[in-house]
Specification:
This protein has 13 helices and 14 strands. The N terminus is likely disordered.
Length: about 525
């Protein structure tokens, strides 16, 4: 039995304001996935900036060093005027006298682009490389050369061509700085400067630094800890996300399977329901949903049992009358039995119709979307239809103070709500004496709209004010024809009203002396502001 006191729904934890926008679980997923990525990106940025800065610093150093060497050569190895020339032997001696670091290579070209001096050759530089570990003879046969002769020849040709282009560009009077490949295949930072006496280009000085790759390789090795930390962090966060999301979702799926296979009536996962995130909201929603479904299943089972009981009564009466009919020889007795059969058939038809309407009620309520409508206009129309189609002796339906109220808007489905008031008016007319009145009144109380249906009948026993809303309950005064009511009208009315967040109740009307002068049914809905 529904209580007259409206209960508010508890506020969901996900509706609370949080210190950052978005969901907590979403922020957690983003943060955990970004940790490993941020570590890797930070390491890569550090490496890229270092490589760029290293190349720029090495280029500037080579340019400064080349300008100094070029000035020395111009001063000590050029002669002639007005057409100066460079003394190749003197320039080579000066170049040999200057200190050239082992990580750098300096080459001098004349104005024709021919090599005059090479610091590698002048210093008798010998390339040293570590030999690979000793292998057995059969392993040596299977070992392939690291670089085929054709590939090496191609690399050397491309390196010489790049150097020739750089020298030719410098002979035109330009200063050239670029990163290119040497004949060994490694990248070098190269600076080519024209040796000029006034404006005459006498040769080209090229300086190369081949230690950039070694420094970058060392930096990449230094980046390995960052990568390992990033990988480990990603694995750890993945395992954490799996434990926090995947496993709980799997538990929810298994719990739903148990409910589907009828091994449980509700999902119950208290540890997940306590979580303050979307999974906790989902668990609580599933628990509420399965509880509602379980309650609905119980109600359907009780409804089916009540239906079977109510249908059995007229069927039993019909069977008894049919069995007795052949034994009755008098016409008066046969007419009485036929009247009983007709009454039971009508009662059975009324039961089946009302049971069908009650069973379709949930589907009808969910099929039509709610909208705002004027309850005053609806009640005026219903009262007018009753008076227009009434028969002599039926109670008159009066809409009190019709037109005096402003529109009172409620949100819902107009058809089912109209059925509520038709059921109440039919019930009130059935109890009203011939020539009586059924008064329909409506008004506002706070933010609620209330409507009342009053009759002039005998009223109701106080202990039955709540029982009248139960299914198949009927309580009629003596002398009323039995079987004219199925006992489902008020039950259907309560179901519709509660589906619209409303309230319905019954009470007796009393005069100044405290005597019962009729019954009153009240209906209340939340008001919708226009």
């Amino acid at each position: 039995m529904a209580s007259a006191t409206a209960t508010a729904k508890p506020e969901s934890r996900s509706d609370r304001r949080r210190w950052l926008p978005g969901s907590r679980l979403g922020r957690l997923i983003i943060a955990l996935n970004l940790i490993g990525l941020a570590v890797l990106i930070a390491g890569a940025l550090v490496l890229n900036e270092f490589r760029r800065g290293l190349i720029e610093a090495r280029t500037e150093s080579l340019r400064t060093q080349g300008e100094l060497i070029a000035k020395v050569i111009v001063i000590g190895a050029t002669q002639g005027s007005p057409e100066p020339s460079m003394d190749a032997e003197r320039a080579a001696e000066l170049l040999q006298a200057l200190f050239i670091p082992t990580a750098q290579r300096v080459r001098l070209f004349d104005r024709e682009g021919r090599l005059v001096s090479d610091s590698y050759l002048v210093a008798d530089r010998v390339d040293q490389r570590a030999l690979p570990p000793a292998r057995k003879r059969d392993q040596l046969r299977l070992q392939l050369p690291a670089s085929p002769p054709q590939a090496r020849a191609k690399i050397e040709a491309e390196a010489r061509q790049a150097l020739a282009q750089e020298v030719a560009q410098a002979l035109s009077g330009q200063r050239v700085a670029k990163v290119r490949k040497a004949v060994t295949g490694e990248q070098v930072v190269s600076v080519s400067l024209p040796i000029q006496n006034v404006k005459a280009v006498l040769g080209v000085l090229t300086l190369e630094a081949g230690d950039v790759d070694k420094i970058i390789a060392a930096q990449r090795r230094a980046l390995m800890p960052f990568i390992l930390v990033a990988v480990a962090t990603t694995i750890l966060t993945s395992l954490l996300l799996s434990a926090m999301i995947a496993q709980p979702v799997l538990r929810l799926a298994r719990a739903a399977d148990r409910v589907r296979l009828s091994r449980a009536r509700a999902i119950s996962l208290p540890d997940l329901a306590k979580r303050d995130d979307e999974l906790g909201d989902l668990t609580r929603a599933l628990e509420s949903m399965t509880d509602a479904l379980s309650t609905r299943i119980d109600a359907i089972e009780r409804f089916a049992a009540d239906v079977a009981h109510e249908i059995r009564n007229p069927l039993t009466s019909i069977r008894s009358a049919i069995d007795t009919l052949p034994l009755v020889k008098e016409d008066k007795g046969r007419e009485r039995l036929l009247a009983i059969l007709q009454q039971d058939v009508n009662r059975l038809d009324r039961l089946v119709t009302d049971i069908s309407n009650a069973s379709r009620l949930d589907a009808e309520l969910s099929r039509e979307p709610p909208r705002a409508f004027d309850l005053v206009r609806l009640l005026q129309d219903i009262a007018g239809l009753y008076n227009a189609s009434g028969r002599p002796g039926d109670a008159e339906v009066v809409f009190v103070d019709a037109g005096a109220h402003e529109p009172l808007l409620v949100s819902g489905r107009e058809g089912p709500i109209g059925q509520v008031f038709r059921n109440l008016i039919d019930n009130a007319r059935s109890f009203s004496p011939p020539g009586g009145k059924v008064c329909v009144r409506i008004g506002r109380m706070g933010r609620r709209v209330r409507a009342f249906i009053d009759d002039d009948g005998p009223g109701m026993p106080p202990e039955n004010l709540e029982t009248v809303f139960e299914r198949f309950y009927t309580s009629r005064p003596k002398g009323t024809a039995f079987g004219n009511n199925s006992g489902l009208g008020l039950s259907i009315a309560r179901q519709i009203v509660e589906a619209h967040d409303g309230r319905i109740w019954a009470e007796n009307r009393e005069d100044a002396l405290g005597r019962v002068i009729g019954a009153r049914f009240g209906v209340e809905f939340p008001e919708v502001r226009a």
